[in-house]
């Protein structure tokens, strides 16, 4: 055993019985081994060696007679004394005494200790290989996870960077858009589309706020001018009366007082309309609905403007003459709308013109009535119809008269009609007249 754990030594007799061995007795499980492989090894060795006549003569006593079938190619395997059904590579040599064969020295190559050590080494190698494979697999998995993480987060990074870039955009002059296209239709593309839609709405609202602000500035400028004119005139005549009152004749004093009263009335009318429009736009107006005889209301409003219409020889008619409809509405606000429309019609209708107040059932179920005010005036350009309800807007062909107008009548009328859950509509042709109409809900027929 000094040669190392790779060798196991056994001494067997010529019949294969194990006589002695260099091993722990508890580990040897065979008592006999097959001698055929031993004879085959010895025979191959003799046949392969170049023997001198003296060596051949000295080995004549060795029994090397074996079947040719036992002479096989290397390696030749022999029985393993430590295993009942296992063979191993071996080496053997004959043991002679006085030239007579006594037995064989049987040596197992790679013995049990060697196998145990090699198995431990292999186990360690397998563990090392397994550890390397596991480390490589873990590294590959981490790379794949990083790739997947990059794949999923790259679009989010693009979206985040695009949104951050919006802070540097000029919202007044540029159209806001992420300008991102995902590789396929997925949730991220839906997010991009939703953000672009939201940006479009923000841009639209921003533009509307700019337009409203611009309209507010123009309105304030116009109203300031309109307020300054009667106020300056009123102040001038009052100062004249104050400074030269005793030097003025009674006729001049009366004339100045009349002019001052007229300017004060115009100033009060303008201020009242400004407050009325402000309350309407602020949603601070409530309706006081009651049962109203529509025919009586229309005739009362028409009668209020008879003198003013007669001054221009304008005829005001009601169609049908017997307007027996009952409605449920705020009589004060409805009268205000009709008054604004008739006053506007008289102002833009030339002499010998015609103004018609008509009422007709407008819906198929007969529950709604259409109230219309039609004149034979100068009409309005088609491209200006969408602007006439803006505060202080004046049509390009509007006629001036001697009275002051704030230009808020149609804007106020539109806001009042919207309180009735309707819209003030307009139809017009140049030189043929204009027709304003809106709807109210009928309650019953009187």
Automatic annotation (TrEMBL):
Top-rank lineage group of the source organism: Bacteria
SUPFAM superfamilies reported in the protein's UniProt record: ATPase domain of HSP90 chaperone/DNA topoisomerase II/histidine kinase, Homodimeric domain of signal transducing histidine kinase
InterPro entries: BphY/WalK/GraS-like, HATPase_C_sf, HATPase_dom, His_kinase_dom, HisK_dim/P_dom, HisK_dim/P_sf, Sig_transdc_His_kin-like_C
TM region(s), chain numbering: 132-152
Catalysed reactions, semicolon-separated: ATP + protein L-histidine = ADP + protein N-phospho-L-histidine
EC number: 2.7.13.3
Domain Histidine kinase per the UniProt entry, residue ranges: 222-444
Sample GO molecular function, one term: kinase activity
Phosphoprotein is among the record's keywords: yes
EC class (word): transferase
Keywords: Kinase, Membrane, Phosphoprotein, Transferase, Transmembrane, Transmembrane helix, Two-component regulatory system
Protein's name in the database: histidine kinase
Organism: Psychrosphaera algicola
């Amino acid at each position: 055993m000094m040669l190392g754990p790779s060798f196991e030594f056994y001494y067997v007799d010529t019949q294969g019985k194990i006589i002695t061995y260099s091993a722990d007795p508890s580990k040897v499980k065979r008592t006999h081994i097959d001698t055929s492989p031993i004879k085959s090894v010895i025979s191959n060795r003799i046949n392969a060696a170049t023997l001198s006549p003296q060596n051949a003569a000295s080995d004549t006593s060795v029994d090397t007679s074996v079947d040719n079938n036992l002479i096989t190619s290397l390696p030749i395997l022999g029985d393993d004394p430590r295993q009942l059904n296992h063979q191993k590579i071996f080496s053997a040599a004959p043991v002679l005494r006085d030239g007579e064969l006594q037995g064989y020295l049987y040596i197992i190559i790679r013995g049990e200790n060697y196998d145990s050590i090699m198995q431990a080494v292999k186990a360690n190698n397998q563990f090392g290989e397994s550890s390397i494979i596991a480390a490589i697999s873990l590294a590959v998995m981490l790379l794949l996870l990083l790739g997947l993480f990059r794949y999923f987060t790259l679009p989010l990074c693009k979206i985040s960077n695009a949104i951050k870039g919006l802070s540097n955009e000029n919202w007044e002059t540029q159209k806001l858009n992420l300008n991102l296209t995902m590789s396929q239709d997925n949730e991220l593309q839906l997010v991009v589309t939703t953000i672009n839609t939201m940006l479009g709405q923000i841009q639209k609202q921003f533009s509307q706020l700019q337009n409203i602000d611009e309209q507010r500035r123009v309105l304030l400028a116009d109203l300031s001018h309109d307020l300054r004119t009667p106020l300056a005139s009123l102040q001038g005549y009052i100062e004249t009366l104050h400074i030269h009152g005793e030097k003025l004749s009674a006729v001049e004093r009366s004339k100045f007082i009349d002019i001052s009263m007229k300017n004060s009335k115009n100033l009060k009318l303008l201020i009242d309309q400004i407050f009325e429009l402000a309350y309407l736009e602020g949603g601070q107006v409530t309706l006081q609905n009651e049962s109203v005889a529509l025919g009586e209301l229309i005739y009362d409003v028409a009668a209020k403007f008879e003198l003013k219409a007669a001054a221009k020889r304008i005829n005001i008619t009601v169609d049908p003459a017997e307007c027996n409809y009952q409605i449920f509405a705020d009589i004060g606000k409805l009268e205000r709308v009709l008054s604004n429309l008739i006053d506007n019609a008289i102002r833009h209708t030339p002499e010998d013109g015609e103004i018609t107040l008509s009422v007709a059932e407008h819906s198929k179920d007969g529950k709604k009535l259409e109230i219309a005010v039609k004149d034979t005036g100068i009409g309005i350009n088609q491209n200006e119809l969408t602007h006439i309800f803006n505060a202080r807007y004046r049509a390009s062909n509007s006629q001036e008269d001697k009275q002051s107008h704030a230009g808020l009548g149609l804007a106020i009328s539109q806001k009042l009609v919207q309180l009735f859950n309707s819209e003030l509509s307009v139809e017009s042709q140049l030189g043929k007249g204009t027709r304003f109409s809106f709807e109210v809900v009928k309650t019953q027929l009187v």
